[in-house]
Amino acid sequence: EEAKAEKEPKPDPRPNGRRDDKAEKPRFMFNIADGGFTELHTLWQNEERAAISSGKLNEIWHRRHDYWLLAGIVLHGYARWTDIQNDGAFGVINEPFKGEASKGNFLEMKNKFLARRFKLLEQALVIEEQLRRAAYLNMTQDPSHPAMALNTRFAEVECLAESHQHLSKESL
Fold first, then answer.
1. InterPro entries annotated for this entry (predicted)?
2. DSSP string, 123-151
3. CA atoms within 13 A on the CB side of 94
């Protein structure tokens, strides 16, 4: 009976009964749930928008490149930028820099970018872990706690400083 069940065609879940010739490509899914505490998601949105609108998905650094950068660090080690770039499995990391290869300080510029990008990813991953731990311990914010008023005070001071910025320029 099992062999018979395997030979029978399975019902098609599509309402029109037709099969699509194109197999759906699985959508790339990689996320760091940093709760908006870093600018990572804003960067990802802007980069992905630019990559899709220009049609240069591999030539503009975005979320997929960050994934492969982290995978390279896991395999080769922290700050081993040259080893990661030379590994054929992580060739996608080199794509966004192909247009800059003619510049004199190309390798230094590329390594500095990778270091800055990893620092941002590392920061987001640390925050993600802190949020996960807080959720696990059922920790919540007490809105009446004095520390919660710090953000409001900071915003007020920042606004005041910006509005009086012209005074310092005029005094010089």
1. CHD_C2
2. HHHHHHHHHHHHHHTT----TTSGGGHHH
3. 13
- Residue 154's H or E segment, with its range, is helix 149-163
Output the pLDDT for position 14: 52
> Is there a contact between 80 and 73 (Cβ–Cβ < 8 Å)?
yes
Give residue limits of the domains in the chain. Answer: 39-164
* Residue 63 CB coordination number (10 Å): 19
Q: Is the CB of residue 104 less than 8 Å from the CB of residue 55?
A: no
> Residue 22: which region, alpha, beta or left (left: phi > 0; alpha: psi -120 to 50)?
beta
Q: Which residue has the tokens 């807080």?
A: 134
pLDDT along the chain (172 residues), means of 10: 46 53 71 91 92 85 92 94 93 88 84 94 95 86 76 82 79 70
Question: What is each CA distance from 78 to 96, 106, 113, 151, in whole angstroms?
Answer: 21, 21, 14, 34
